[in-house]
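I have been asked to look over a protein record a colleague put together. Alongside the sequence sits a line of tokens, each denoting a local backbone shape. Please read both lines and tell me whether the tokens look consistent with the sequence. I do not need a full report, just your reasoning and any doubts. I have pasted the whole thing underneath without changing anything.
>
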Amino acid sequence: MARSDWGPSIKDGVVLRTSPSALNTANTDDPYGCPRKYWYGYVKDIREPMGEDAAKGVKIHKEIETYLKNGKKALSAIAMSALKYYPSPGDTNLELELEVAPTECFEVAGIPVLMYIDCVSPYSRYLDTMGAYHEDPSSTVEVIDWKSKGNLDYALTNQQLLDTVQMGMYGAYALRRYDAQHVRLSHVYLQTKGKKRASKSTILADREIIAKKWPKIEALGRDIIDYAKETDVNKIPVNLKTCKRCFYGNICPKDTQHTIEMVFGKALDMSLLPQTPVLDTAAHLANLQAEEAVTPSVTVPEGFAAALAFIQVNDYGTPGLKGDAYKVACAAHGVAPAASGASPGEGKAGAVTFDDPNNVVALAHEVAGHVGTPFVIPAPVLPADAPASKPELAAEPVVGFSDHPAGFGIADPVPAPPVSTPTEAKPVDTHIETSNDNLGRCMAAVDSGKWGPIKKPDVIEGFKELLAKADSTAIAPAACPQTAPAQGVEVYIDCQPSEGTDLAPQVEALAKALCDKYACQDVRLADAQSDLGYGKWKGIITAYFANLTLEPGAYYLNARGNEILEAAAAGFTSAQVTARGIR
């Protein structure tokens, strides 16, 4: 039956009518419900287009309706799978595709309701979950909704069915329309993917049970009245559990603090964690602004420009640069960054693109071991007031590289190759021994042509200028100014200052709080359907530490090798971290 056109449901911030599906869209207790989804879809009228699954569901509904009207089994394999759950066809007492106009229905919080019900059976008998007939108490009516699902594992249980807004409203209408004392609420599920199968969930409720559901439905009605008046989506509550597959995900703003409050509740705050004095934000901001003129936005690793030049002059071309590596390259040589925020690589080294500038220096060391030519970092000239060096503080080892289908990838830390003199230069071999032999295999594959011909992409003009300057004298004090450490918070990741506070206890306390809240022994073993499932615990921990306010001082977190600690370390941005060990 074609549905009537009732026009817009909201006009000038006023809700003219609503429906069970609209209220359920705003219901945060529903697995797919979110107030912002309601706001975008109904208030802003940005409707999600009908996808393939939805279109298939409409087709199945039409097939079932036609069969129940005339008894002709012109049914698809999907619709046939539920045949045992269909009432007898041709029964004129069945109400099919029932449209309940706002003028015929009840109101919710003063809002008229429009409903569409798939099937209403007025008989005090029903088909159970096995497809067999049973008798219900006298004065019972059954409301049936056909549900197409990709996987029946996600079908609602009998009790869950009773708790839905949609079936509660259907039940209330059926009780009133038929003046019944009981209503049977039923979902018939048809699996649309994989094996063709069907199931039924059904539960009997009386007037008192349905009445107990009404306060929640009324509350949702009052909520959507408020949402319709609001013009700023940031003031609309968000259900973060629904974000993963939400159609509006790309336009819906969400802040990190909101994420933490939604998961933990405001009661958690810092009470379950070791307390840290709150930083005076205004004063800290003033310090940052005062230091902005002398503090470079990115830190240039020692030997960065020389490393680029060394890689190039040894016929390995240049690696691609993006993110921090590209910013460092521009800062080191006074070149304005391009709008793309990246520079393509060329030659053999062009097979890899670096985000971490330290990896450029590491690659230069690896090339040195390959070609037998030493890579020597020119010593920078320090300011007169610079603190004395401390030889006892050993530098972090450089990283090696492992095989990756798309090029080189970061592997476990390995020592830098021994520096040899020019007289000890060894011939280039197609098999190069390195500490883990990974880079050797990659380079051998490049040399032998196994990766195909190397395409030499066009290099942006700014980067050509950068490379032209990258010679042994490029590391001048003017190009890489030395400044005193910024006053305030210092965070060391995977390295440790001489004095400082370990952040690991806070991470452990947070993990324990999560375990207590979600009844699991380890956050990594949390139930897949919980807020922590499918690795979401990592995002929660990262979000928490991204918002953690620290008192001025030194802090460290040795996270390497521990994925829980690494999730916390990911919460600190490059701007916040004073030093980070190379992995």
